[in-house]
UniProtKB/TrEMBL annotation:
Alphabetically ordered keywords of this record: Calcium, Cell adhesion, Cell junction, Cell membrane, Glycoprotein, Membrane, Metal-binding, Repeat, Signal, Transmembrane, Transmembrane helix
Stated role: Cadherins are calcium-dependent cell adhesion proteins.
Full protein name: Cadherin 6
GO cellular component: adherens junction; catenin complex
Species per Swiss-Prot/TrEMBL record: Cyclopterus lumpus (Lumpsucker)
Membrane-protein topology: Single-pass type I membrane protein
Alphabetical GO biological process terms: adherens junction organization; calcium-dependent cell-cell adhesion via plasma membrane cell adhesion molecules; cell migration; cell morphogenesis; cell-cell adhesion mediated by cadherin; cell-cell junction assembly; homophilic cell adhesion via plasma membrane adhesion molecules; morphogenesis of an epithelium
Keyword Calcium: yes
Subcellular location: Cell junction, Adherens junction; Cell membrane
Top-level division of the source organism's lineage: Eukaryota
Alphabetized Pfam families for the sequence: CADH_Y-type_LIR, Cadherin
Amino acid sequence: MDRRKVCVLMALWAVAHLGSPVHGLRALRRTTGGRRGSAGLTGQDANGVPLRRSKRGWMWNQFFLLEEYTGTDMQYVGKLHSDSDRGDGSVKYVLTGEGAGSLFKIDENSGDIHATKRLDREEKAYYILHAKAVNRVTNVALEGQSEFVIKIHDINDNEPRFTRDPYVARVPEMSDIGTSVIQVTATDADDSTYGNSARVVYSILEGQPYFSVDPETGLIKTALPGMDREVKENYQVVIQAKDMAGQNGGLSGTATVNIALSDVNDNPPRCQNTVTLYDFRVPESIELGSAVGLIRAVDADIGENAEMDYRIIGSDGPGMFDVTTNRSTQEGVVVLRKPLDFEKKRQYSLRIQVENAHANSRFFSAGPFRDEATVKVTVEDVDEPPVFERASYVMEVKEDTARNTAIGSVSASDPDDKNSLVRYSIDRRTDMDRMFNVHAGNGSVFLLRELDREENAWHNISVIATEFNNPRQISRAPVYVRVLDVNDNAPAFATGYETFVCENAKANQRIQTVSATDPDTPLGGHRFFFSLAQEAAGKANFSVRDNKDNTAWILTRRNSYNSLQKSVYHVPVVISDGEYPMQSSTNTLTVRVCTCDREGNMKLCNAEALTARAGLSTGALVAILLCVVILLMIVVLFAALRRQRKKEPLIISKEDVRDNVVSYNDEGGGEEDTQAFDIGTLRNPEAIEESKQRRDIVPEAFYPAAVRRPAPPPIRDHNGDVRDFINQRLQDNDGDPTAPPYDSLATYAYEGSGSAAESLSSLESATTEGEQDYNYLSEWGPRFKKLADMYGGDDGDSDS
């Protein structure tokens, strides 16, 4: 009966909760013995012991649980029951494993299992748990532990999601129908193995009729032919992905696909002007390579599909113009290649063609991918400077041509229609010596000075042509004047010749070879003739032989020469050229007579010859003299410096610059020297003559006299007089701005009042001779006996 009850309960639970047969839920029971009230023996072992068959009491295989439960009560999962449970409460059911106690709870008395929370299959699809029955008192397991699975049953609770949103794609314009654009993908988190919850179907919501989508793969394709980028470039397509195989009630998601048409070269270039005529006006003075004008063509395409090439296909001035392409603006630039001349041609016509640089042969059937334009270039007149008939002029003139002779002419004209008169002049910067001039009206070039080819064989001058009506319009032409040679220079020895002849020389012996030079340059080259002068031909000691190669030999005419009779001979040689008019000159060769050995080597010559051969040149002598003069100057300067060093300086020490004693080493003349300094002046300051001037100050006639303090009254004390006088002079010098910068010490030979012998100076005797008493000299001992005898005697004795 218990087994039947369990089966009935499980069937009722499956029908109530799953709505489907209980094909997945089974309850297998295990008992510890046989059937109730009988022992089931199945056999014996090897020892004859009977064997008892054991049956499993219970085991749960798996449960199914719906996800996303929305009820208020806990969701019932199932019930555990053991054959050992007698209903007396002695059995306790225990649940362990994934989610046990948190997600799943079991009633330990009845074995009912409930889910405590709302479960999501997309988070976890199944849970593995373990159940066992234990004795409530002893906690001993009554049955072995059994494992079972709670599988979460999927419901359609997730909509499809695209992997990207938005999608960006490009497809060439003018693509055929069915051209693939991009493939979109959507995923569904529901269980793809159960029902159609994860089966996605694609459809297009926006973007018809231009594009379509494959419902199974999500591949987007073009659905309309001839889509033109120039008409519409960007498209927005909305794709829907729906699960449940697209049936009603399925969930769906959408994604946006931005599709842009890429450009292809399907449009030809077109000139911008509707009449395809361009009119340019340029001055004739425009420089070569300058832009004349721009041609603009338009192309609806972009990028390299819009690049264009321009070329001239027709012109009435071949080679005058060229056209290039400005790649940044795709404009045609008409460029001047040859100079314009308003007077020769005033208008040009060009046909210019423009075409794509990268044509697409797929669209050639649509028409020619090129266009043409006509360009008219009008030349404007410009006041131009005069133009010389030739770019340069070459004139030839002989060097003996007289002044004011015309040597050639230049010609220039005004190229403009008004044909203004032209005035000519010489650019004096090219003719600083004023050798040439030009006639202002006819352009004749003539000489202002005689030319000399030997000084300058070519003269390069510039002639200026100026319009009378517009002096600012000028042009220049170089004139090259070549000076032609005339035979106006006589030939001469190439160098100064001097040679010797041996005393034992033989007749017709060569002693020297001479040559000549001539600054003229005849067309056929030089040809010189050598001969002995007529005045020396009759009594000549030497002869001249012309070698016909512009050289000549000097030969002896006798067998011997005597240096004692004549030591130097002068041989006159006449040199003439072969040009017209013939030019000639007489050159002298100096020949000295010398003593030679048998081989003809000179051994001894006269003094004059030796000096000439061994002497120094003039330049060497001048250099030697300069060296001698410089050495003398150095010696004199050194001696002067030595002498200056020996002089004792006025100021011996640089540190002591205040008091310096100047010694003159002058000896006084004694009592008879009336010009000596009078000591009486020191004793009587008031007796100083005001007219006397000091030698160490500037005279008062040039500077105002210093204000002197009044002199103190005279004191009879001789020492006091001298002291007061010196103090007064010191004060005067300190307050005098004209006094010398240094103090001078004057020595008066006054010993002062401390000496017992008083003053021995004879200067005092001039004023106090009658008051002197020299008797005390005899008391000073034998050293002063001589003085005592000279001055100590009485007047009576001296008279006697």
